[in-house]
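User: Please fill in residues for this 354-position structure.
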């Protein structure tokens, strides 16, 4: 997990210039600067003065290292600390100008210090130090939306590219990052909450039931609304999602290529359940789906062409997505299923019999 963006070239050049300037100032200070101006030389220094000199250079080195670390970690204190250090550093060339030591050179150094302070006060540098949360290639954005009731809601989403609306933001308190198992996209989830599995508008729930034999059994079911009993849960190991051909509702089935019989619970808004026998599994390549699948930062209405385990392409309109799906279906001799507004699927294309 990463919390920093790549360092811009302007910031990198600033750090290089700062290090080079300090190295040059130390050389000039010892050779022809204030150190020499007051009649000192390295060969005539006492032990005490050597200790003072080495301590001063050690402090300068540690300060530069800490500033570089702060810039890499994008901590705003590093920018403010650097401004303070540069302001203190201006006293040395100002002192040299007062006593008439290397007037032209010290004037240039003083001007460079002041320009560096001005650079750190620009909006470009402040933007770099904003508290922005980054997860790999994904940046966290937030956007304020107005609901029909008039209330405002802040939504958070990840995006690899700059979205049409929203601004980069930091990680809100009480949240962490989860990974969507189908799209491998990051999302925010509350701390301590499970990785809830979602399939379209349906959420996976689990519930414990007691059998007549006295044993307890954990059953899993999908529901588009919050059920009367059951808790949202993550996908259990060894299972995948199947689609009931009659009701078009998702359900869990074991990962196998053979025909199996599994007792599953299928729930509706009225919480009615029934046991049904699975039909033979279809190969993922035999069905191409056109589903509404918005990308990060986009609004609902974007369409994706996908199979059970692969996303082929994204489209802005439903019509262009259907055309692309039919083209793929002809190549794979597959059927096209198109998602409706209510989440059900209808036939979009069927290969001709040979």
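Assistant: Residues filled in for all 354 positions:
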């Amino acid at each position: 997990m990463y919390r920093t963006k790549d360092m811009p070239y302007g910031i990198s050049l600033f750090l290089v210039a700062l290090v080079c300037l300090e190295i040059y100032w130390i050389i000039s200070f010892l050779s022809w600067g204030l150190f020499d101006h007051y009649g000192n030389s390295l060969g005539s220094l006492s032990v005490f003065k050597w200790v003072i000199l080495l301590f001063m250079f050690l402090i300068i080195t540690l300060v530069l290292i800490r500033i570089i670390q702060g810039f890499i970690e994008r901590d705003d204190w590093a920018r403010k600390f650097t401004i303070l250090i540069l302001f203190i550093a201006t006293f040395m060339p100002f002192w040299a100008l007062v006593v008439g030591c290397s007037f032209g050179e010290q004037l240039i150094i003083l001007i460079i210090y002041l320009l560096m302070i001005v650079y750190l006060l620009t909006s470009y540098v402040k933007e770099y130090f904003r508290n922005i949360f980054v997860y790999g290639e994904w940046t966290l954005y937030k956007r304020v939306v107005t609901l029909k009731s008039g209330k405002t809601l802040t939504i958070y989403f990840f995006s690899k590219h700059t979205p049409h609306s929203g601004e980069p933001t930091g990680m809100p308190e009480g949240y962490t990052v989860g990974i969507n198992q189908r799209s491998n996209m990051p999302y925010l989830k509350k701390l301590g909450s499970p990785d809830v599995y979602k399939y379209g508008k349906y959420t996976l729930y689990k519930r414990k039931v007691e059998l007549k034999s006295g044993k307890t059994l954990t059953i899993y079911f999908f529901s588009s609304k919050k059920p009367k009993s059951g808790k949202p849960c993550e996908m259990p190991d060894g299972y995948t999602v199947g689609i009931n051909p009659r009701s078009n509702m998702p359900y869990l089935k074991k990962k196998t290529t053979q025909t199996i019989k599994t007792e599953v619970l299928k729930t509706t808004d009225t919480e009615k359940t029934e046991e049904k026998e699975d039909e033979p599994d279809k190969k993922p390549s035999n069905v191409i789906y056109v589903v509404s699948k918005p990308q990060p930062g986009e609004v609902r209405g974007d369409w994706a062409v996908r199979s059970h385990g692969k996303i082929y392409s994204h489209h802005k309109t439903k019509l262009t997505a259907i055309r692309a799906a039919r083209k793929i279906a002809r190549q794979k001799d597959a059927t096209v299923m198109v998602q409706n507004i209510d989440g059900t699927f209808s036939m979009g294309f069927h290969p001709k019999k040979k």
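For context: The longest helix spans residues 47-72.
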